[in-house]
Amino acid sequence: MFEPQRTARPWSILVADVATGTARTVWTADEGAGSVPHAVVGADQLLWGEGDRLVFPWEKNGWTHLYSIAVSGGRPTLLTPGDGEVEEVVLSRDRRTVWYNSNQGDIDRRHIWRVPVAGGAPVAVTTGGGIEWAPAELSDGGLAFLRSDARTPAHAVRLSPDGRTAPLAANVPSDFPSARLVQPTAVMLTAADGMQIPAQLFLPAGHRAGQRHPAAIFFHGGSRRQMLLGYNYGEYYHNAYALNQYLASRGFVVLSVNYRSGIGYGLNFREAERYGASGASEFNDVVGAGMYLRGRDDVDPAKVALWGGSYGGYLTAMGLARAPELFATGVDIHGVHDWNVGIRTFVPDFNILLDPPRTQLALESSPLASLERWKAPVLVIHGDDDRNVSFAETITLVERLRDRHVEVEQLIFPDEVHSFLRHASWLTAFTTAAEFLERRLR
């Protein structure tokens, strides 16, 4: 786990007769790109459309697209061309149309599209500066979906057959401070190894060129995630986006980094060479983010912090351990600190003795292998009933850092899990994180 896989033995689609149990192969993927199946978001990865056509995802051209093929076989038809990823997919009730959301043409957002099962030009159902996802067809031919933007959290919207939109429920409070939030902008970083890395930049309200601010760099978890130019469609990252906005409101320049091995930018970006346990190549992106902020005339280079949760906690710890000259402090929320422990959480029978070179590389790709240079104070946050990242990861890191006389503050949630169950836990965690960063960097 947590190492790239760009090719494999090609996968196939088979159809079986339920009466006889006889199966036949309808189609087999080509070798090379797309030979590894990559799922879309949805209850089904195969949709049986009108005219006995099967709709399925395939990464043949390096992007997750939809194709359709006759049940009788033949060559598949590309339904969603272009540079962009298809994500949530649903079939219309008449089985003639596929509704989906994608970042086609707007790489750091999501919009809803539709395309006929038999093929034809896709149609963008939503456009503009919003983010739309989770389409659901209504009985009158309209559509319901979720929407957010840079200043408005997620809310349900109804699109009528005549093209008008209206809120389905008043679930955004009337006093929500949308006007005080900032519009992040897309920027591109150069990683330490030269790779171009996308990110989003939040500038404080009233920002003036040349006025120095403290800065915070955010790394999402996953790593199969993508932060967007607005409130994210995932609950965890919806909350993380809110903290980035809050830090900007407190005078921080905030950089949200979509580091390699994340989604949204194609197969090769997601399956990045030597990522994670196979070499920690994302550390190059951490350094690139630090250098980008140090090069801005509105950032105090001595006051740059890191923060993130889960995989983002891992990269926060990697930055503090390996690049102490760049980063002054950090907030590590339930981060992975030893890949050989992290992998065992998902694969309980994982045995580090079966492949010593690989497990040695996994350790060398972990923060625990590079603590000798760590000197910055850190806040660690963890729930002790975490099923995704073992609480032992935080215990071990804290003990090792204290042995080295590094200042560590802790916030532990008894009986709390990875993606906190209680809203109060999110509020406490993020309030504590913001207070820590302000106290350490003011």
What does this structure look like?
- By secondary structure, the chain is an alpha+beta fold.
- It folds into two domains: 12-167, 6 Propeller (Neuraminidase), CATH 2.120.10; 181-441, Rossmann fold.
- It contains eight helices and 22 strands.
- Strands 15-16-18-17-19-20-21-22 form an eight-stranded mixed beta sheet, with helices on both faces. Strands 3-4-5-6 form a four-stranded antiparallel beta sheet, with no helix packed on it.
- It starts with 11 loop residues before the first strand and ends with a helix.
The rounded distance between the terminal residues' Cα atoms is 40 Å
Could you name the CATH class of the largest domain? Alpha Beta
Here the CATH topology of the largest domain equals Rossmann fold
Largest sheet: 8 strands, mixed
| Rounded mean pLDDT score | 96
Number of E strands: 22
Strand content is 25-35%
CATH superfamily of the largest domain: Alpha/Beta hydrolase fold, catalytic domain
Strand and helix order: EEEEEEEEEEEEEEEEEHEHHEHEHHEHEH
Number of domains: 2
State the helicity in percent bands: 10-25%
Strand order of the largest sheet: 15-16-18-17-19-20-21-22
In one word, what is the shape? Answer: globular
From the alpha-carbon coordinates, what is the Rg to the nearest angstrom?
23 Å
State the assembly state of the protein chains. single chain
Report the uncertain regions. none
Chart the SSEs and their pairings.
Elements: E1 12-16, E2 23-28, E3 47-49, E4 53-58, E5 65-70, E6 77-78, E7 86-91, E8 97-102, E9 111-116, E10 123-124, E11 131-137, E12 143-148, E13 155-159, E14 165-167, E15 185-190, E16 196-202, E17 213-219, H1 235-249, E18 253-257, H2 267-270, H3 283-294, E19 299-309, H4 311-322, E20 329-333, H5 339-346, H6 356-364, E21 378-383, H7 391-403, E22 408-413, H8 423-441
Parallel strand pairs: 17-18, 17-19, 19-20, 20-21, 21-22
Antiparallel strand pairs: 1-2, 3-4, 4-5, 5-6, 7-8, 8-9, 9-10, 11-12, 12-13, 13-14, 15-16, 16-18
